[in-house]
Amino acid sequence: MPAIRLDCLGSGHAFSHGRDWSGFLLDGRVLLDAPPQTLAALYRVGGAEAVARLDLVLLSHLHADHILGMDLLLLEVTQGAAAALRGASPLAVAGPPGTYARLRGIVGVSDRLPARTDPRLAWLESDAPNRFRWGDIEVERGLMEHDPRVIAHGYRIHVGGRVVAYTGDTRSCDAIETLAAGADVLILECGGPPSPGRDATHLDWPDVSALRARLPSATRMLVTHYDPLTAPDVATLPDITLAEDGASYQFD
Ligand SMILES: [Zn+2]
Ligand SMILES: [Zn+2]
Questions:
Q1: CA–CA dist 20, 149 (Å, integer)
Q2: What's the gap in Å between 14 CA and the centre of ligand 1?
Q3: Ligand 1 centroid from CA 226, angstroms
Q4: Which bound ligand lies closest to the C-alpha atom of 15?
Q5: pLDDT, tens digit, 9 for 90 and up, residues 55-100
Q6: Contact indicator for 44, 10 with CB cutoff of 8 Å
Q7: 189 Cα–ligand 2 center, Å
Q8: Strands across the sheet with 121-125, in order?
Q9: From ligand 1's centre to the CA of 17, what distance in Å?
Q10: What class does CATH assign to 4-245?
Q11: Residue 105's pLDDT is what?
């Protein structure tokens, strides 16, 4: 079975020191969140061809660090060099209810966002939990526990005979293990620790270690959305990979 390829477009959270914001390209086809630097990062991976090969964008939630790359990405897909390279199949964008409306609100009345009815795009907004299929990619969508003011989705992506789980942003909750059950790779956030006196909205390093201890070793863990200033020495995190901006990972 082919290895799972993950290109890290960024590994930081909203306020990380010296990191781009978290996002990944899975097997060159599925974009996991669209941080502000998405288009430039995809160009670094493989130029306009990397954009042209995208089949599906999975947005975990509508916080700025996860969606602000969308307008330029969609312009490139519909009007840029990638538009000429793409085939007839539309790019699907999955996210919580209100995704398109939120992106429209960001760009305002300019034409920098293609119309919702543009046939080169398909909008798959839905409440979790559910599952859907896009071509040969099957996606299970779960509901995570993050900022209570926003809907936060995690995803299990079945692609190339493998399963990749992606938490998006979440605090410690049972949904993470549901998402990770039997997965080959779990990409999980570590946006903690919380500010003093505030409730947790993210995982913290002890949560990550506890999850590592509970999950089978066959499920590889790739930690993202973290601040390198808070990260412990990797030697204290056995069997965990800390994502690095611009790195490419292969999981057999
Ligand atoms: Zn975030
Ligand atoms: Zn968030």
A1: 24
A2: 6
A3: 9
A4: 1
A5: 999 999 999 999 999 999 999 999 999 999 998 889 999 999 999 9
A6: no
A7: 10
A8: 121-125, 91-95, 56-58, 30-32, 23-26, 4-10, 248-251
A9: 14
A10: alpha beta
A11: 95
